[in-house]
Design brief:
about 250 residues, Ribosomal Protein S5, domain 2, five-stranded mixed beta sheet, 6 helices
Length: about 250
């Protein structure tokens, strides 16, 4: 039996890109990680402020809060991308992605145990080659874990509020083939495109998917989700290895 044809970057259909994490990339953040999914590189920084939003105080909501911001730096793409501030407003894609990042992190953090603190997650794309949102979520979790450890070490938190890890990956149908972790050349012309967010224990946080002027069957849906689950288990293992190197656990 012949092996499946390789993709443009030499990967098998079921293969992740090269994944790497570099800690403390932004020294003034409470915790930070440079995450790379192949040529996609994102700085993920977590900063903890000892206060909560005014709406929480006004409504008597206990615990802390987590919010996320996402941006693509002007030089992250082949053609310069204008900053949102130069247009006077965030574009719809930016708003969608930063809300997704926030939801993903809040799914695995017990805000009651965070105390009266706000955890800011800033994700800035240095280089975009597809999958920026999935890389941002995967790296943002690690940045948050590093930041929270500083509060624990300083005895500012009684216990770790993190309940599980979280990671994200893309899957899709391109050129008639089901592929894991799409690079830009695949993502831009994919017939079907999904982003899957899952915890380390295998619970889904979010499934985003659509046909791009195409449809997909129940069998394809099942197969794509299974492919994503396999990739996410690998990503979770890489997160665990990174945290072990940092002498941390989830």
């Amino acid at each position: 039996m012949s092996s499946p044809a390789l993709r443009a970057d030499g990967r098998l259909p079921t293969q992740l890109r090269n994944i790497s994490f570099e800690a403390n990339i932004a020294p003034y953040a409470t915790g930070s990680v440079l995450v790379s999914f192949g040529l996609t590189r994102v700085i993920c920084a977590a900063t903890i402020e000892p206060r909560v939003p005014a709406w929480m105080r006004q409504q008597g909501v206990k615990g802390g809060w987590l919010t996320a911001e996402y941006s693509m730096l002007p030089y992250s793409t082949l053609d310069r991308k204008s900053r949102d501030i130069s247009r006077g407003k965030l574009d719809g894609r930016t708003v969608e992605i930063q809300r997704l990042i926030g939801r993903s992190l809040r799914a695995v953090i017990d805000l009651q145990k965070l105390g009266e603190n706000t955890l800011w997650i800033d994700t800035d794309v240095l280089q975009a080659d597809g999958g920026t949102r999935t890389a941002a979520i995967t790296g943002a979790f690690l940045a948050a874990r590093l930041a929270i450890q500083k509060l624990l070490d300083a005895k500012k938190l009684a216990e770790n509020p993190i309940t599980d890890s979280v990671a994200a990956v893309s899957v899709g149908v391109f050129g008639g083939r089901e592929l894991l972790d799409l690079a830009y050349v695949e993502d831009k012309d994919a017939d079907v495109d999904f982003n899957i967010v899952m915890t380390g224990r295998g619970q889904f946080v979010e499934v985003q998917g659509s046909g791009e002027e195409a449809t997909f069957s129940q069998d394809q849906l099942t197969s794509l989700i299974a492919m994503a689950q396999t990739g996410l288990k690998e990503l979770s293992a890489l997160q665990t290895a990174f945290l072990t190197k940092q002498l941390l656990k989830f």
